Amino acid sequence: MRAMILAAGRGKRMQPLTDHTPKPLLCVAGKPLIVYQIERLVAAGFIELVINHAHLGAQIEHALGDGSRFGARIVYSHEGEGTALETGGGILRALPLLGTAPFMVVNSDVWCDIDYAMLTLAKTDLAHLVLVNNPPHHPHGDFILTNGRVNDHRHIQTALTFAGIGVYHPELFAQCQPGVFPLAPLLITAMAQQRVSGYHHRGIWMDIGTPDRLATLERSLTA
User: Residue 158 — pLDDT band, cuts 50, 70, 90?
Assistant: First the structure.
């Protein structure tokens, strides 16, 4: 299975840190955020990696190269220096690099101790999502997980937060047209068809989306 790391976001909430450095290259304990993801993916057996980028993307390619020093083979999906394509549009653009089999997608700016090797997609499903307990900055969650199936009932108090980690079948994007669009509507449609499974990860997970969260992770890793 191939894996894609989403690295095209502008990182506006991280400004001014991201004015001259793309968010995936912000360092924690002396190492860029995206490198932690690469290392965890390779440790789980994912060596064919696709990385999309937009804002200051040339820096990402320069820093990571072809991936050989990580034991991986990295190819890049360049979205341009302007507006990124969002998650859905970014994945669709990268599909020719990902192949025809199911593939993993992870956000470059999450910190998680999950074992990626345990995540699989059933033959009839279009997506398998990792969900986590709601963090303070997202108290209402995103989706409901019941008996291993994910549904869009965000008004229910037991909703969980989407971790930015999932396995997808290319068929999920079969009706999409190139351009800017989010992933969530595609997932919600698949949920209505009962074709989305999920896993509740109860370990460590952080969305490193602000300078304060970046500093919190730094303290936890260097204490």
Answer: confident
Closest CA to 26 of 219, 220, 218: 218
What tens digit of pLDDT does each residue of 75-132 get?
Answer: 999 998 777 899 999 999 999 999 999 999 999 999 999 999 999 999 999 999 999 9
Domain ranges of the chain: 3-222
Task: Please state which CATH class domain 3-222 belongs to.
Answer: alpha beta
Give the N- to C-terminal CA distance of the chain in Å, as an integer.
Answer: 36
Q: How many CB atoms lie within 10 A of CB 188?
A: 15
The tokens describing 175, both together, are 């009706």
Q: What is the pLDDT of residue 120?
A: 95
77, burial (CB in 10 Å: exposed 0-12, middle 13-18, buried 19+): buried
pLDDT bracket for residue 157 (50, 70, 90)? low
